[in-house]
């Protein structure tokens, strides 16, 4: 099926808009394929005019996608599940980062013995991970969940001893473990061997109206993933300005813990497996996920293009 055709069949009309596509993204290493696609000019090389405004805070990605000020972007894989009832809901069109979330606690702590204040992030897969851990180990009466505003705040509170544990992502996980803190869960014990953290999403109307642009962005992310595999140090150097407090060694360790995976095929069950928890946390009716919440037809088209085009062997220059 042609990219966007399934959505148009459900009544979303086509339009061949030519305005710049507005992209948004988070700040964690799970966004690496999109970061590199932007910073190394791979999106531009695919012929797409895009603009990516600077990140304005931890929740700005979700806000921009919800209020329509962004057309397409990388966000936590649970957001489209929470917003599935919206009139113009988000559609998952590709992956981005694989695994790379964790609950990290004080040295010597085990998850089944966790108690006290625990920090996490509202409206994020990390909140869902913590909720599933609390349910699995019966911790509801023993932990106090506190919502934080930044990953740096989470790390600082754990180091200062004001929190017993925090949820976090790469490259913060590697830094905290290197400082002697305990890995309580990396998500695989709760969600299975592979799960996405960040995914590429677009409003349903955008995917239906601008399938060629969506496909081109995904193709650029696939180019970036191939380049990361061939030249990981060069790729990380190209985006290092986005992680100014982390060393190259920390970024390389983070990449090992959270590799890119733009091809989301085969991970649909891991996404939909979180549906009941996400809907409960969002205060939404459970029921069944609506059809079309994951639409990989643009990804399939991009994969066909990736077979015909190749990214540079190495990164020689970044604008």
Automatic annotation (TrEMBL):
One Pfam family from the record: NMT1_2
Subcellular location: Periplasm
Any one biological process term the GO annotation gives: alkanesulfonate transmembrane transport
Gene Ontology CC: one annotated term: periplasmic space
Record keywords, A-Z: Signal
Keyword Signal: yes
Primary residence: periplasm
Family annotation (SUPFAM superfamilies): Periplasmic binding protein-like II
Gene3D superfamilies the UniProt entry points to: Periplasmic binding protein-like II
Family label: Belongs to the bacterial solute-binding protein SsuA/TauA family.
Protein name listed in UniProt: SsuA/THI5-like domain-containing protein
Organism: Lichenibacterium ramalinae
């Amino acid at each position: 099926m042609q990219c966007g055709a399934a959505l148009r069949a459900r009544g979303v009309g086509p339009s061949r808009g030519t305005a710049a596509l507005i992209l948004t993204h988070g700040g964690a290493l799970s966004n690496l394929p999109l970061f590199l696609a932007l910073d190394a000019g791979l999106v531009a090389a695919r012929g797409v005019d895009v603009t990516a405004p600077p990140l304005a805070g931890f929740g700005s990605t979700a806000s921009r996608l919800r209020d329509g000020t962004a057309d397409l972007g990388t966000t936590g894989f649970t957001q489209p599940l929470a917003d599935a009832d919206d009139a113009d809901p988000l559609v998952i069109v590709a992956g981005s980062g694989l695994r790379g979330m964790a609950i990290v606690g004080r040295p010597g702590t085990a998850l089944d013995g966790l108690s006290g204040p625990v920090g996490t992030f509202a409206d994020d897969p990390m909140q869902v991970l913590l909720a599933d851990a609390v349910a699995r180990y019966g911790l509801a009466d023993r932990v106090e969940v506190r919502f934080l505003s930044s990953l740096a705040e989470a790390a600082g509170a754990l180091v200062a001893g004001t929190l017993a544990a925090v949820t976090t992502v790469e490259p913060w996980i590697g830094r905290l473990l290197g400082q002697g803190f305990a890995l309580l869960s990396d998500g695989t014990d709760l969600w299975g061997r592979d799960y996405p953290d960040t995914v590429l999403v677009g409003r349903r109307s955008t995917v239906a109206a601008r399938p060629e642009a969506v496909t081109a962005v995904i193709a650029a992310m696939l180019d970036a993933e191939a380049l990361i595999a061939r030249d990981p140090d060069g790729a990380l150097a190209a985006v290092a300005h986005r992680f100014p407090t982390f060393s190259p060694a920390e970024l390389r360790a983070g990449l090992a813990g959270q590799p890119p995976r733009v091809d989301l095929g085969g991970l649909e069950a891991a996404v939909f497996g979180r549906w009941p928890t996400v809907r409960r946390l969002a205060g939404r009716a459970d029921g069944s996920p609506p059809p079309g919440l994951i639409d990989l037809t643009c990804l399939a088209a991009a994969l066909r293009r990736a077979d015909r085009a190749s990214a540079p062997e190495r990164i020689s220059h970044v604008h």
